[in-house]
Design goal:
This protein is mainly α. It has helices spanning 11-19, 21-45, 52-76, 88-94, 101-129, 133-160, 165-182. It has seven helices and no strands. It is globular, with a radius of gyration of 16 Å.
Amino acid sequence: MAVKLLCDTSAEWVEQAVEHFDQVLVDHAHCEKKAAAQALSLLSAFPGEPGLARAMARLAREEAGHLFQVLALLEKRGLCLGADGGDPYAQALQSQVRQPARERLLDRLLVSALIEARSEERLSLLAARLRDPALRDFYARLAQAEKGHGELFLELARKTAPQSCDSRLAELARIEAKLIRSLPVRPRIH
């Protein structure tokens, strides 16, 4: 089962993303880098959680592979990665993570599931709107991968806290929707 987002990305974002695709591509590389790091961070923080370590190691490898592919696109277009300008969206969601260990694990998994769901939506939008057929195919494949990542995080969250997972997800999804509506529209993945 996938995470249900409570609001759609605006048409304005799609227009900006297509028009300023090089900026989106650089941001996308940073997102893939952070996704791989997040998986390794979860593995490090919760090494004894059943099934988590192998799942996060596999995810980190896949995200690093996506990073490699996006970096190749950057080089092909004569772009460089440059410094990471930060991600106010992800930072705001991460600030919602509670600190007691079990709650922290649940929240980190759910925040990751929401970020993956938003990424899936936006990569799908790019796949539908980009003019280059190779880029459309690339982004369609990556959108499917993001969907699988979101489902993985949600599955792990449900195993971690079966009683409270859905109510906490609903709460975080409301926060995520409010955040999407309040942040300025920029040509970035988030």
